[in-house]
Amino acid sequence: MRKLFVSAGVLIACIVAIYSSSCNNETKESGPTVNNDSLDKVISRGKYLAVHVAACIHCHSQRDFSKYSGPVVPGTEGGGGSKFDHTILDAIPGTIYSRNITPDPETGIGTWTDDEILRAITQGINKNGDTLFPIMPYANYNRMAKEDLLSIVAYIKTLKPIKNKVPERQLMIPISMAYPGPALQKSVDGNVRPAESDKVKYGEYIFTIADCGACHTPFVKGQPDFSRVDGGGNIFTIANFKVASANITPDSATGLGTWTEERFLTKFTLYRDEKNYNLDPGTQNTVMPLSEYAGMNDDDLKAIYAYLRSVKPVSNKVEKYPK
Question: CA 197 to CA 320: how far, in whole Å?
Fold first, then answer.
């Protein structure tokens, strides 16, 4: 892939050009206002994706599981340090920590170029050339529209720098065994966002960015069971509770086959009100970051619902809170 090596200013200018191209008939005097408005839209889009869809922030921050759905602890946004290991999910081969993605130059990504950030997000290769473990779903982000990727990069650069040196990972397998190299496109230049009018295709796009399939597809001996995609059943152990991922296929008996669009939306929109997650649920908790996903707009949630209605039904009865 041809390296971009652009400065932050050039990158932002390029993104702004995408958003402001339809405004080229404005007067010269109104230009700066248009540019500022366009930049605000870019960063706003990046925040929406990073916080509420791709959920970069919930993984790269500290989460408070004394509250329902483990909302992000204020002040830790992007600072990293969340621990993922086999005690949480059997399929994780070792101990992995989410990295500090704030602009801190010593412990974060403050010295990274835009191209280096983009490469980490879409190719799983960091500034030093090391391979990232694919618990970060860069194989999914590799299919994201470039416009959306650049918006996320622009937003990440606005995060408050946090000085937090994250421990190194400890894997029980060579990283080459986990790296999905052949599945990755070498370039994201041609990626585009599907038309929102095509609800199923657009819903698949949002679903993929949110990496729903990783949690909701059961693992067998550390590998996803592709015969039961989205069939649920993975057991997550966090603090004082265990919870299994749901079957989200349209199977009527064990999945979401009987769910209406309204019921599906309510599953998320309920948590737009802080009082509905700002409580201690004890053992009836969830690892699904509903307090963040609740910020998805209704149209995106409806598109996900439409997509899920189109997938293959899987018969797999899941006990939500296994003993």
Answer: 34
Give 10-residue mean pLDDT values along the chain (323 residues): 36 39 39 68 97 97 97 98 94 96 98 97 97 96 98 98 98 95 95 97 98 96 93 94 98 98 98 97 96 98 98 98 93
Find out whether 204 and 307 touch, Cβ atoms under 8 Å: yes
Provide the residue ranges of all domains of the chain, joining segments of one domain with +. 1-65+99-193, 196-315
pLDDT at 37: 80
Give the residue among 214, 248, 223, 219 at the shortest CA–CA distance from 316. Answer: 248
What pTM value is reported for the model?
A: 0.88
Alpha helices in the chain (DSSP H): 8-20, 31-47, 56-59, 114-123, 138-141, 146-156, 199-209, 212-216, 261-269, 290-293, 298-308
Cα distance between residue 68 and residue 64, in whole Å? 8
Nearby residues of 317 by Cβ (< 8 Å), 6 or more positions away: 247, 253, 254
* CA distance readout (Å), 191 to 129, 161, 168, 293, 296: 24, 30, 33, 24, 22
Q: For residue 323, what pLDDT is reported?
A: 86
Helix or strand or coil: residue 277? coil
Q: Shortest CA distance to 73 belongs to which of 275, 289, 268, 239?
A: 289
